[in-house]
Design brief:
It is built from two helices and no strands. By secondary structure, the protein is mainly α.
């Protein structure tokens, strides 16, 4: 009786671990695809903006340089003001997901007993 309980408990832990890994892998693949699509969209709009600015200044070099300057300013603003907040939100989300998985695991144990 006790041996069967321990075996079932080990099997439950394995299934929960496999489920957690599957969720993380699916989330990473989904996030990676969204990142790639976002980069491509940003790239196309950046090129379009650069050519549009080039019509005003009659120089493609100036148009592309201005887009580069815009991104450089955004980078400075991000690193100065938002970097720590974004990192904190990401950490909080990871901890929240980990605790949610732990709560789900604990609930499944309570129902088994």
């Amino acid at each position: 009786m006790v041996k069967k309980y321990v075996e079932n408990r080990i099997q439950l832990v394995k299934f929960n671990f496999i489920g957690a890994i599957a969720n993380v892998a699916a989330g990473m693949v989904s996030s990676f695809l969204l990142l790639i699509m976002g980069i491509l969209i940003l790239l196309m709009f950046s090129i379009a903006l650069a050519f549009w600015l080039a019509t005003f200044f009659e120089s493609e070099i100036i148009g592309f340089a201005l887009v580069g300057i815009i991104y450089f300013v955004l980078l400075l603003i991000y690193t100065s003001f938002a970097k720590d907040k974004v990192e904190l939100k990401i950490k909080d989300k990871i901890v929240e997901m980990a605790l949610k998985d732990e709560d789900d695991f604990n609930e499944s144990i309570e129902y088994d007993e």
